[in-house]
Design goal:
alpha/beta; Rossmann fold; GMP Synthetase, Chain A, domain 3; twelve-stranded mixed sheet; four-stranded mixed sheet; 11 helices; globular; binds zinc ion
Length: 432
């Protein structure tokens, strides 16, 4: 079985990877300067020209791009190639403001497919596999990306798209689907449906590639157990091409970023300063091979950590942690970065529902953090002593996760105010 899709690239030395990045970055900045007037203007405002960029070491001199820039430049302002050379678009769901429309040349599609093929091979796929793609097809990148990768690997590809669960299960059983690609929540749903319909003996999945949503290690274990598979994470975003920007290998401990195409940086989301490797901060990507939509220093708002520790799989490309939250959601409490997702993880680990409220205040010039947590229905009748013991347990668990002391108050079930069905998570009284 093939271990790597492109072994000479995936296991290249760090020096080799850096040499590719240096050469491609210089070429890309020239391309963008010549063809993308929106970004050229940003470079001019910052007083930097292509002559200042000799390699990755100069990356920090370049201006950032943000989602606001994408909205402002909509639809053609960041296009790097004439429309005559573009062959496809994809688009984000655009729940807030204008949609992001990303353009692709045939070469862009080809390289994107390579990235997804690397992810599939890392999950154990080869040409004997039946790759069942239950990501949505259409403007969303999930279906098209994995579909292209699956073709490259030579899998028999089933472009199912999402929905119609009964038909999904029937095809899985009849055609022998072995690799499942979809969102983790849909994988969990399919797992339940398989159990309910008693189809477990007829379905022979061996691995799944699940992305486009945040999911926890608990959810991974749950899906793996129920479907009898290995579940792999995949990362990507429409602005940077789609799924396959980074993917998990057999080590299942972080995702290898395809560094021959994407240069990753971690920055302080407040100051924009580049942080040393191993720091937690906002992930920024520069695409060095994309032609039609060449994002330079695009701020993803995802908070994560990069690591270059040797990976047992033999791949040498840097690994990113699962995103720990969005920089938009980050709270700074007594100088410590706190994400609601960290608090949520602790609550789920301790067996509580994810209905909580974080109250931040400043009392006598010191930030305070209080977490209100809805107790489970069966705790409601517990004695005060028992509830107080449960609160102490949560305080300890939060301290170990956040590196910060919080107070915890267990409140009655369903007592936290909800808006549109969801609990209002954060009340920051320092801003009032
Ligand atoms: Zn690895």
């Amino acid at each position: 079985m093939a271990r790597y899709f492109q072994p000479e690239i995936e296991t290249a030395s760090h020096e080799q990877i850096r040499a590719w990045q240096d050469e491609r970055l210089v070429k890309q900045i020239r391309h963008v300067w010549d063809n993308v007037s929106y970004y050229r203007q940003k470079m001019e405002e910052k007083g930097v020209t292509p002559d200042d960029i000799h390699g990755v070491a100069d990356l920090h001199k370049l201006p950032f791009l943000t989602k606001d820039d994408l909205r402002e430049a909509y639809p053609y302002g960041l296009l790097g190639k004439p429309l005559g050379e573009c062959v496809r678009i994809h688009s984000t769901s655009g729940t807030t403001g204008k949609r992001v429309v990303a353009f692709y040349t045939q070469n862009d599609i080809d390289l994107w497919d390579d990235c997804c093929a690397r992810a599939l091979v890392a999950a154990g796929a080869d040409n004997e596999d039946v790759c069942h793609i239950a990501y949505g097809f259409g403007l969303f990148t999930g279906g098209a990306g994995l579909n292209g990768g699956s073709h490259k690997v030579g899998c028999l590809t089933i472009p199912m798209s999402s929905g119609n669960t009964d038909r999904q299960l029937q095809f899985m059983a009849d055609l022998g689907s072995s690799i499942l690609c979809c969102t983790p929540s849909y994988a969990a749903y399919l797992a339940e449906a398989i159990e309910e319909q008693g189809l477990k003996d007829q379905i022979h999945l061996k691995a799944g590639i699940f992305g486009a949503e945040a999911w926890s290690e608990n959810m991974r274990r749950d899906i793996e157990e129920k479907l009898g598979i290995k579940a792999y994470d995949i990362y990507g975003l429409t602005e940077i091409s789609g799924p396959g920007v980074a993917f998990e290998c057999e080590a299942q401990s972080g995702m290898h970023i395809n560094e021959d195409h994407f240069i990753a940086e971690i920055i302080d989301p407040e100051t924009g300063e580049v942080l040393p490797e191993g720091s937690k901060g906002e992930l920024v990507f520069t695409c060095v091979t994309k032609e039609a939509f060449p994002m330079i220093r695009y701020r993803t708002k995802d908070i994560c950590v990069l690591t270059r520790e040797k990976c047992p799989c033999g791949r040498t490309h840097v690994k990113m942690s699962k995103p720990m939250g969005r920089s938009d959601d980050m709270l700074i409490i007594r100088g410590v970065n706190v994400f609601p997702s960290q608090i949520e993880t602790v609550l789920l680990q301790q067996g509580y529902s994810p209905n909580y409220q974080i109250i931040v205040d400043r009392i006598n010039h010191t930030d305070t953090l209080e977490v209100l947590v809805e107790m489970n229905a069966d705790m409601f009748s517990d004695s005060l002593a028992k509830i107080s013991a449960a609160e102490k347990e949560l305080i300890l668990a939060l301290k170990s996760m956040l590196g910060l002391s919080a107070t915890v108050k267990l409140v009655a079930p369903k007592s936290i105010t909800r808006s549109e069905g969801k609990a209002v998570r954060i009340i920051d009284k320092r801003k009032i």
